[in-house]
Amino acid sequence: MRGGGIWRVRPYVRPYRTQMLVMLASAAGALVAVSTVPLVTEAVINGPIVHHRGGLVPLAALALALGVGEGILLFVRRWILGRAATGVEADIRNDLYAKLQTLPVSFHERWQSGQLLSRATTDLTLIRIFVGYGLIYLVVNTMTFVYVVALLLHLDVRLGLVTVAAAVPIMITGARFRRDYHSASRRVQDQQGDLTTIIEEAALGIRVIKAFGRHAVEGARFASMARTLQSSSMVAVRLRARFFATLGLVPNLALAAIVLGGGWAVSDHVMTLGGLVAFVTLFLMLVWPVESLGEIMAIAQEASAAIERIWEVFDTPPDIADRPGAVDLDRCEGRLRFENVGFSYSEGGRRVLAGVDLEVAPGETVAIVGATASGKTTLLSLVSRLADVTDGRIAIDGHDIRDMTLASLRRHVAVAFEDPTLFSASVRENLTFGAPDATDAEIDAALDAAQARFAHHLPWGLDTRVGEQGLSLSGGQRQRLALARAILGRPRILVLDDPLSAVDVHTEAKVEAALARLLERTTALVVAHRPSTVALADRVAFLDGGRIVATGSHHELLSTVPGYRAVLAQDVEAPAGPPAWEATAV
Amino acid sequence: MSVDLATRWRGVAAEDAEVITAPVNAMLRGRSRRLLSSLMRPHVRALLGATALIVGFDIASMAGPLMVQQAIDRGIPALTRHHDYWPLGLTVLGLVLAGAVQASTDYGFTYVTGRVGQDVLLDLRQRVFDHFQYLSIAFHERYTSGRVTSRLTSDVEAISDLLMDGLQVLAWAALTILTVAGILVWSDPVLAGVVFVAAPFVAVLARWFRRESVKAYRATRETIALVIVHFVESLGGIRAVQAFRREPRNQEIFAALNDAYRGATQRSIRLVAVFGPGVKAMGNATLAGVLLVGAIRVEHGRITVGVLAAFILYLRRFLDPILDLSQFYTLFQAAAAALEKLSGVLEEEPTVPEPTPGSATLLTSAQGRLDFDDVTFGYRDHPVLHHIDLHIPAGQTVALVGETGAGKTTLARLMSRFYDPTSGSVRLDGTDLRSIPRDVLRRHVVMVTQESFLFSRSVADNIRFGRPGATDEEVRRAATAVGAHQFILSMPGGYAASVGKRGSRLSAGQRQLISFARAFLADPEVLILDEATASLDIPSERLVQRALLTLLRDRTAVIIAHRLTTVEIADRVIVVSDGRVVEDGPPPELLSRPSRYRQLHQAWADSLV
Ligand SMILES: Nc1ncnc2c1ncn2[C@@H]1O[C@H](COP(=O)(O)OP(=O)(O)O)[C@@H](O)[C@H]1O
Ligand SMILES: Nc1ncnc2c1ncn2[C@@H]1O[C@H](COP(=O)(O)OP(=O)(O)O)[C@@H](O)[C@H]1O
Ligand SMILES: [Mg+2]
Ligand SMILES: [Mg+2]
Predict the structure, then answer these.
(1) Domains and CATH numbers, chain B
(2) Is the domain of A120 the same as that of A57?
(3) What is the atom index within ligand 1 of the atom nearest the CA of A105?
(4) Shortest Cα distance from A340 to chain B (angstroms)?
(5) N or C: which end of chain A has fewer CB within 10 A?
(6) Considering only CB atoms, which chain A residues are within 8 Å of B111?
(7) Residue A138 and residue A30 share a domain
């Protein structure tokens, strides 16, 4: 059966082809055993019973052997299926995960996470069922079908042709079913992904939902999506019901035609009554393969839609990957240059950055200052190639970063993001995220520098699991852990995106004192919203309108660049009206 | 791969221990059975209808062979000898009719069971989802979003398999077995006895299967949940994963978890591989037994050949459904493990319970007075807040300041009842929060959390979250008030533009503005802002402050901020340190004497140069 791109699963089945063949053989063997038992029964009745011949015990033993043999063959098939089908499923899942890890951030922002998850779970289950059951029985049933039809044609050509003719409506409705059921399954699977997204966001956003008391609204949104999914599933159910009924009806009609035509033939003495009986008996053997065809085709179409969905991910080119011949920069001095860098998030979209030129000398610290949404975070994300520049280039020690291997680039560049991005793992695991070999002494040093010694006082020390996204810590604690993580690997280039926004003034001063020592030797880009953070830097670059409009010391810029003054200085303009407490104090 | 590798990285948390003993097992079974029956109860009539359809189907499918026999015995001889078409014609007509009845009952049956299955799924999904929403923050902290997701997807689907395929099998198989068993006993009790000899063996096998499969299927549910959790969390933080070259280690962990799931699935499939064919082989063995005993009985003249032949034909009709029934049983066991997990969630009680209708106080309008009376609170055993006494009159704007980790956020969370105090009470307008229904409380008290979570929806939808019925104009006004209108218009699509996955298309400051607009739109009597402007530049923060001045004119507000510009609009400052209120007073007063606040203010002023 052609089933969309179902053949694409082949490379994953290939390692298990021996098992598949054994499964096929045992399925066929079991079928033979089943169909032999009636012959034995007949032999018992015709032999030992009617003609009082001996041989009852051996025949009964044969029946026993066939019966048990069938059981054993079934057992063998399913036992092997346990390994092969789960193996195919697990292999695809591993590869899918690996692929997803290589796809750039932009891909993950574009795709709903629920859609990815439903591919990795529901869709893969469908493929497992197809490989373990559908595929095997597809082959076995086709073989049975061809074999029996050939026998029927051999018994009586004209009645045999009636049987063949009966296959025509099955094929026609089958083709329609295949098409319709494929798109119905696809719709169901897509909607399962959407529903999963709602579920996941409702769980992740539970604090916001609770803070606003929006349970009912979210519940209604979920219910309406679940209802949509339900009605799509009902479309699939209806299609199945209709097709299965057709598959039940056609053999019966064919049987009626055979009885009618056969009766005619017998009365015309073209055929014997015995011949007709044999023909009908044999024909009835077709009923099961035809009826189960519906189930198999449904499984195949579900799998085919699932494969289509999964391969959409596999077929996405990894936009950010090692170029052929990329160099593994072993040692890095830390000279960072932006040359006429331009960037936009979508092709032909608004340019967030345009013509950014900036050079950071080894060991120098440059603060990036700019209004909200001026592109600071965007600029920083280009350095570790979480996104690639649209124009111009970024170079480290003179090498275009796109000519370096990603591994070496990211070894030299460490980042502390605006949102701390912690994982529900132990504190230690979160810290050694990029430096799995870090020693305890190094970890301590990093915690000290980030003023994050509180981690030692958590209930299980560094082995304490921080809640999902680190939410069992206070905002400032999260941020300091993220900072410690960034400095732990002793990177040559440090990229810090507003690293102290959630930290109080006192703690900030302490962190800055510690950071200042560290930054003496490290090239750093630091996004800053507060003058105190700016003080860390040797130089300030002011980002405005997508380009760096001025660089210089804080005080220089403060006195020469009005825009800079507006973004960073407190005294430009007091809030409209006197502060409330002044008003009341008067 | 060692279990150690798969688990050690997760670290230790208090809630991990989970031991299942025999009485627990029984409790779990009872619980899942209750859930299942409450799910099925509304559909009893539909299921009865389905049973009627299957009876029709059975009769029609049994009529087929009868018609063929009639044609051979009567129709064809009549045609051959008397050229009488009628008998043959009638039987053929009967065949067509039987086929039609069979097809239509088949259709009806598949449809009805499918309908019931889908309705039950919908019901289950809604119940579990609503219950998750109902449970407290403390529950979600321990459960994590990945497990919530796995319960509502993977577990629900395991049940879906049972409902969609199982019901059909069950109704058909049970019915056939009962009728055929009756026929067997009626045609020859002794031979039937031979058949039933196998019953205890089947029962033993089924018992073994049940015991083992409970464990096996439970393992599949648990391992897939871990796969989902890791998948969701690690890809959710893909920036950090890639920036820190975490991919190989993640892959290692994922492969280990995935392999554990594979192993669990393999084990459950292999249990079925023993059980199903075992039942089948036993059935087949009874056939051999019947042949042997039957032949002997024929020999002794106890039964006729015809009876034996019929018996054997019926026996086959008896054995097939038994195998199907065993298949149903395996589906059932798989679903039972999922039901166990889901019923567990449904029986979970919120640690922050709703007041009983009798004790509930329906504050229709609130003034906004907040009182903390001797409040002590800790997330675990270790207290974070100690004996807090704090009284905020209606309409006051209060700033909470203090070091990170001092407990400011915790205090705010108690005000909006994310948690209940360990001792003492928090009151709104004199009413203990514990006796205010949550929907009423949320109408009056709204908190903007430190993490400005946005949903992957449009800008307008995210703002409208603050007040679902708000008009476009009101949404626009809220956005304008906090200074978000301009940038929203510059996005392709304006208010209809999607903010991307959880707001990823916006800068951090823009996200904060949107969550601010959301709170602005909600316009509650008590507004709590937890570092809601931390990522904004100073001009934007000013704009927000200006908006706050109008918004907060007659509102109670609690503002947590590190940048003291925000504090300047407060009537009163409360300094929190190590879970205690250490200073409390109007800013000018605190500034006028040596105080921690003055130190803080001084340090902050110094940091501005
Ligand atoms: N993933 C994204 N897709 C599309 N637009 C984005 C994305 N991330 C940021 N932007 C837009 O780019 C601009 C700059 O954002 P960002 O670099 O985060 O600013 P900031 O200077 O505040 O860090 C903003 O207008 C924002 O809306
Ligand atoms: N959900 C939680 N589970 C356990 N501990 C928590 C949780 N949230 C905060 N804590 C701990 O409680 C203390 C106070 O945190 P918090 O109230 O967030 O401080 P902040 O004053 O910075 O807002 C910190 O030590 C923090 O680690
Ligand atoms: Mg930013
Ligand atoms: Mg806080």
Answers:
(1) 3-346 (1.20.1560.10), 370-454+525-608 (3.40.50.300)
(2) yes
(3) 1
(4) 22
(5) C
(6) 237-238, 241
(7) yes
ipTM: 0.91
Q: How many structural domains is chain A composed of?
A: 2
**Is A282 part of a structural domain of the chain?**
yes
Residues of chain A with pLDDT under 70: 1-4, 49-50, 52-53, 570-586
User: What is the arrangement of strands in the sheet containing B580-585, beginning at the earlier edge strand?
Assistant: B445-448, B526-530, B556-560, B397-401, B572-577, B580-585
Taken in order A208, A213, A214, A220, the sign of the CA dihedral is positive
pLDDT at res. A496: 93
Q: How many CB pairs below 8 A link A and B? A: 576
Give the per-residue pLDDT at A311: 96
Rounded Cα distance between A362 and A339, Å, is 17
Pair of tokens at residue A583: 């008003």
User: How far, in Å, are A67, A208, A585, B565 from residue B541 at the CA level?
Assistant: 81, 22, 24, 9
How far apart CA A31 and CA A148 sit, in angstroms, is 13
Q: What is the CA radius of gyration of chain B?
A: 35
Task: Give dist(CA B162, CA B168) in Å, integer.
Answer: 9
Distance CA B407, CA B97 (A): 78
The per-residue pLDDT for B235 is: 94
The per-residue DSSP string of A177-191 comes to: HHHHHHHHHHHHHHH
Do A349 and A309 sit in the same domain of this protein? no
pTM value? 0.92
CB burial of B317-349 (b: ≥16 within 10 Å; e: otherwise) equals ebbbbbbbbbbbbbbbbbbbbbbbbbbebbeee
- Ranges of residues in chain B whose predicted pLDDT is under 50: 1-3, 5-6, 15-17
> Which range marks the domain in which residue A406 is found?
336-421+492-584
Distance CA A174, CA A293 (A): 9
Percentages (nearest 5) of helix, strand, coil residues in chain B: 70, 10, 20
Q: Best interface-test mutation with A: which of B141, B238, B576 has the largest number of A CBs within 10 A?
A: B238
A381 CB within 6 A, ligand 1: no
A262 and A310 inside one domain: yes
> Residue B376 has what pLDDT?
96
| B183-220 confidence digits (pLDDT tens) | 888 888 988 898 888 889 988 998 999 889 889 999 99
Nearest ligand 1 atom to the CA of B504 is 1
Cα of B178 to nearest chain A Cα, Å:
22
Residue A382: give its domain's CATH number. 3.40.50.300
- Distances A93 to A119, A121, B253, B560 between C-alpha atoms, Å: 9, 8, 13, 45
Query: With 0-12 CB in 10 A as exposed, 13-18 as middle and 19+ as buried, what is A385?
Result: buried
Same domain as A169, residue A41:
yes
B508 alpha carbon – ligand 3 mean position (Å): 5
Query: How high is the pLDDT of residue A47?
Result: 74
Q: Do A221 and A78 fall into the same domain?
A: yes
In a domain, A330, yes or no: no
Which chain B residue lies closest to A225 (C-alpha atoms)?
Answer: B122
Q: Domain check: are A504 and A562 in the same one?
A: yes
Distance A470 CA to ligand 3 centre (A): 20
